[in-house]
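ok so dumb question maybe but i'm new to this and my supervisor (M.) told me to 'just get the structure for CAAX amino terminal protease family protein' and walked off. so i did the thing. is this what she meant?? sequence i used:
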Amino acid sequence: MKSVALLKNKGVMNFTPIFLLIIAYSFMQGILFEYVFKSLVGYNIISVLCSYIFSAGILLFFVKYFENTTYDYFGFSKENNLVAIKAGFGLAIFSVVGVVAILLISNNISLTLSNDFKISTIIILIILVLIQGFLEEIVFRGYLMTRLAAKKGKWVAIILSSLFYLVFRMSNPITSKLDLINIFLISIVMSLLYWYFDNILVIAIFHAFWNCISGVILGFNISGIRVSDSLFAVKAISDKQILIGGSYGIEGSIIATVFFAILGLLVYMGLYLKMFRRIAKNK
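this is what came out, is it supposed to look like this??
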């Protein structure tokens, strides 16, 4: 990974400041939500999203200033960005549509066009959801994972950054153990995708549009947070919460577990194929 190589050459911070910054980011998000945005716009998804966005923005600005680094050190690339955007968008559509299609075909849910949404609220939600998902990947993969990888190697970085992401997400309404398993699994897969493509744009776009399509478009909860307005309304037909995901959304579905497990395995195999090709090329 280019960003890891850059950090190794430049030298990175010790573990303590890195972890303290991530902990500060978590506390900052909670404080901004509780004492700023909740009082300004009420207890709703907009206040939650704004607290995520502002805390991530403050953290990234501080890190960039403190480390005196360019965007390359956060996993951005100057090459193949259009391919990265297409890959991230394609993965988001394929994954959400695939999981939802299985739920529809198996008669576990129904989708109907919503008739009580406000277009202005939809536009605001789309913008906020896209920014939030994008920034979250930069924080946990572009910042945390790359710096851990420069210090301890990629696999340690993947596990530790995914554990931090899991702890961070536990502030959301968790309804089952499967929610926790899926959070960790999805984080692992996102890390592998980042490693494979070597471009943070892929997973930033993937994460952003996964949330946007599943939440603002289709009407599922986003990581346990209810979406106030959506283009479609989803209704549970069966009581099989393990399939539907319950109040956590499709991220809490066993179907999502299977999908991301398969995707992770394919990406892992792809990484090995790239390694073998590189070895064969150097012979």
